[in-house]
Design brief:
Elements (H helix, E strand, L loop, with lengths): L15 H38 L14 H20 L5 H30 L4 H8 L5 H8 L3 E4 L5 E6 L9 H36 L4 E3 L8 E4 L1 E3 L2 E4 L1 H5 L8 E2 L6 E3 L7 H9 L4 E4 L11 E2 H4 L1 E2 L4 E2 L6 H17 L1 H5 L9 E4 L4 E4 L6 E5 L5 E5 L3 E6 L5 E6 L4 E2 L6 E2 L4 E5 L23 E6 L4 E4 L5 E4 L5 E6 L10 E2 L14 E2 L9 E3 L12 E3 L8 E8 L2 E8 L5 E5 L14 E4 L28
Parallel strand pairs: 3-10
Antiparallel strand pairs: 1-2, 4-9, 5-6, 7-8, 11-12, 13-21, 14-17, 14-20, 15-16, 16-19, 17-18, 19-21, 22-25, 23-24, 26-27, 28-29, 30-31, 31-32, 32-33
């Protein structure tokens, strides 16, 4: 029997991961029978202590961290700053959207960390905390929605809505948040109904094409194989080399690079201990036999396939490995399609690893640090690090801290720049995003709210023509564009300006004067009530003055009459035919004499004797 690994049993809290390791250890070193017996005993132990603990869940177990309010306030302040930068035209719509999404993602992650810290420090025996972090039921994503914030959601088209749900299920959602939330909830229900069928159909088709692949011989004798090394993404190791080697068969001898000793012989199956020995020797790449390079006719051989993980030994002849492969791909398909069901449509994005200033100080970048200018996805000016290096912060009283920075990281500060505590200095995007060269082109229109004359300041536009002959102007470097705004006045013919070019004027000031020449002499009269705005100038060319005259207003039968009385020799009364303020022309009758000399005392027919009577037309007014 191999020497059991003593390190697997240690005094520690046994969570889901530890439990897996424990059973795998028992299975590897003691066989299926004893491992099954141990699993049975573990089940009984778990039931006994679960009954004693009486773990339940209530509303009071959902503790919202007190730091939530300050985290949300900081995020909203940053987004307000981003919106103002977008309004000023400093960043594009794409950059604004990306910045908003990243800000809320980071806030959500920080809040999640606060939730965990709050549980761990205040009440480590909290029911919700124990259930989620032991792996018994639920996960951190669901706990975050219960006591943190739900975060960003996706709309029915799959686009991220840049308005996050700031509340959690403990506090309760607002009406708007509930509507946004319902998108994800409905999507989860529909996905469960529709995509489970798709996943089942995929499994069926995979089985259909792979059912003939069976282990038919011991060794096909091929010398070919595939090279295996640790699977990495950026700085993260996704799958270790020992995990990839476990249960495979080596295609060639593996030699210790230091001693030259053969660690692994050709055609030897690799156990857990051998895999660890290979990695410990510093070997980074191993060539192993693979079903992809097997030379068996219409089948796969035992040596190329390796171990059957069902019992930890070489696969049996006649094993239907094609169907196992088909089911291995199909089975997680149902779980992957139901991800929206479990998280309720919540969008979880990658958050870049960040370096922040621990104290206030001055940035010091060494000259040997290779940097290249870069515009970040948020529209900020930064540098991309072309080779691994270091930078430091020098504070007051001799404080100094050095940071390592890897190739592909984004540096957001300059040499000699003053920084404040907790200021973002550099970031390495998660999943190695910064290392990939991605170029995104976006155009941003800068519109003016004013009409006027364009003036360039430190801006020299270059003229370029495309193949179609269209002319465009490009500024090779940044500058300012001024809009000289104002109003245009059209001067009437004959007007003389009374201001010079470059004079300062105030609102209501006089710019030009014009002359109005009359053809007749007389007295000028302006409308006394609206003399400034009146567009008419009256000139009195002639006038008649009546001494000792008086005008009275009389009303008879609802109509107004003006009576003119003259005093003096033989008082006379006239009825005015022209009302005050009306224009009169030459020879126009303006009043009629009221006289009773020819008053008759009786009625009858008028006869004219020796008097010639002629019709006279009335003078036309105007």
């Amino acid at each position: 029997m191999p020497n059991p690994n003593p390190k697997i049993i240690q005094s520690d809290t046994i969570d889901k991961g530890q439990l897996k390791k424990l059973i795998a250890w028992a299975f590897t070193y003691y066989g299926t029978s004893r491992a099954a017996h141990m699993a049975d005993e573990l089940k009984s132990l778990g039931f006994r202590f679960a009954t004693q603990a009486g773990v339940s869940i209530s509303v009071d177990d959902l503790q919202v961290p007190p730091e939530k309010k300050s985290l949300l306030a900081a995020a909203e302040e940053e987004i307000e700053l981003t919106e103002s930068r977008y309004t000023r035209g400093e960043i594009t719509e794409v950059e604004r959207f990306q910045k908003v999404i990243d800000t809320w993602n980071l806030t959500n992650e920080n809040l999640k960390d606060e939730v965990v810290r709050n549980f761990r420090n205040s009440n480590p025996l909290n029911s919700v905390y124990m259930m989620a972090f032991s792996g018994a039921r639920g996960n951190i994503s669901q706990v975050r929605q219960l006591v943190g914030m739900r975060g960003l959601m996706a709309d029915p088209q799959g686009e991220i809505i840049d308005l996050p749900i700031k509340t959690n299920f403990r506090e309760g959602l607002t009406v708007t948040e509930y509507i946004i939330s319902s998108y994800g909830a409905r999507k989860g229900l529909v996905d469960t109904a529709l995509r489970t069928a798709d996943s089942g159909y995929l499994t069926r088709r995979l089985v259909d094409v792979s059912q003939d692949v069976i282990i038919r011989e011991t060794d096909c004798g091929t010398s070919r194989g595939v090279k295996l090394k640790a699977m990495r993404d950026g700085d993260r190791t996704l799958i270790k080399l020992e995990d990839r080697l476990f249960g495979r068969v080596s295609a060639e001898d593996v030699v210790d690079p230091q001693t030259g000793e053969i660690i692994l012989a050709r055609d030897q199956d690799i156990s857990d201990e051998l895999a660890k020995a290979v990695v410990k020797a510093g070997v980074e790449e191993v060539t192993v036999r693979s079903a992809l390079t097997c030379e068996s006719t219409r089948s796969v051989c035992q040596t190329c396939y390796g171990w059957s993980l069902a019992h930890g030994k070489m696969v049996d002849i006649g094993e239907a490995v094609g169907i196992i492969a088909a089911q291995s791909i199909g089975e997680p398909g149902t779980q992957l399609t139901m991800r929206t069901f479990h998280t309720g449509g919540v969008f979880t994005g990658e958050v870049a690893q960040q370096s922040r200033a621990p104290f206030a100080g001055t940035m010091k970048l060494p000259k040997k640090l290779r940097l290249r200018p870069l515009r970040t996805r948020h529209g900020d000016d930064a540098f991309i690090v072309e080779a691994n290096g270091e930078f430091s912060i020098e504070g007051t009283e001799g404080k100094k801290e050095t940071f390592s920075i890897t190739q592909g990281s984004t540096l957001l500060v300059k040499d000699g720049q003053k920084v404040i505590p907790n200021q973002l200095l550099a970031e390495v995007a998660a999943m190695g995003r910064t290392a990939r060269k991605t170029t995104e082109k976006a155009t941003k229109d800068v519109n003016t709210a004013l009409a006027g004359e364009v003036l360039f300041d430190n801006l020299v536009p270059e003229e370029k023509k495309d193949r179609q002959g269209n002319t465009s102007y490009i500024a090779p470097r940044g500058g300012l564009i001024w809009i000289l705004s104002g109003e245009v006045y059209n001067l009437p013919p004959g007007a003389e300006p009374i201001v010079k070019n470059g004079d300062r004027i105030e609102a209501g000031g006089v710019l030009a004067e014009t002359r109005l020449i009359t053809e007749h002499g007389g007295v000028v009269r302006l409308n006394p009530t609206d003399a400034r705005n009146s567009r008419e100038v009256e000139i009195i060319t002639a006038s008649v003055v009546l001494d000792r005259a008086r005008i009275e207003e009389e009303v008879s039968q609802g109509r107004e009459h003006y009576i003119l009385e003259t005093k003096g020799k033989g008082d006379q009364r006239f009825m005015l035919k022209a009302a005050p303020g009306t224009k009169v022309i030459n020879n126009q009758v303006i009043a009629e004499l009221i006289d009773d000399t020819y008053h008759t005392n009786s009625g009858g027919i008028i006869k004219y004797s020796g008097v010639e009577v002629a019709k006279r037309s009335k003078a036309k007014l105007g």
